Amino acid sequence: MDDPDPDFNCTDYFSTPNRYGSVSLIYFNEKVGDFFIASRFESGSKLPHYAGYIEEDRLETTPAWGILDVSYSRDFHLYNSDHKKVNLNVGVRNLTDKFQDDLDKTIDRDAGYLWGPRAPRTFFPVACFQPLDL
């Protein structure tokens, strides 16, 4: 961006972190089960915060944040059947429970002032009954 933003006199791209990264590790084991671990990191960015809930417009620098997702999955073959199984999948998304702690409130909130992970810490147990491939 060559010309500065007229409202904040800033040449940075808004809502765009300088650094971003993710890493995933998946381990498959038919006897023990499958493990999944993923991490995502995002550095801080410039973000306009418009008046309403706050007194006047200001340019915020959001903090850096990172999250960790983990899960475990395993197939269990049902007794007396060679063609059916149950898949158990349990895990946690956003294990670190990082979230935006300065959200605006009330009807005067700035709906565009959002940063951070999409969801709070979420536990998920899933059991799925399915026929085996023949």
Characterise the protein shown here.
The chain has 134 residues and is mainly beta. It has a five-stranded antiparallel β-sheet, with no helix packed on it.
Question: Which spans have pLDDT < 50 for at least 5 consecutive residues?
Answer: none
Radius of gyration: 22 Å
Report the structural category. mainly beta
How far apart, in Å, are the first and last alpha carbons? 57 Å
* Count of DSSP strands: 7
Q: Main sheet, how many strands, which sense, barrel?
A: 5 strands, antiparallel
Percent helix range = under 10%
Average pLDDT, all residues: 89
Briefly summarize what is shown:
This protein has strands spanning 20-27, 34-42, 46-49, 58-61, 65-77, 84-93, 122-131.
What is the strand and helix layout of this fold?
Blueprint: E1 20-27, E2 34-42, E3 46-49, E4 58-61, E5 65-77, E6 84-93, E7 122-131
Antiparallel strand pairs: 1-2, 2-5, 3-4, 5-6, 6-7
How would you describe this structure in keywords?
0% helix, five-stranded antiparallel sheet, mainly beta, 134 residues, single chain
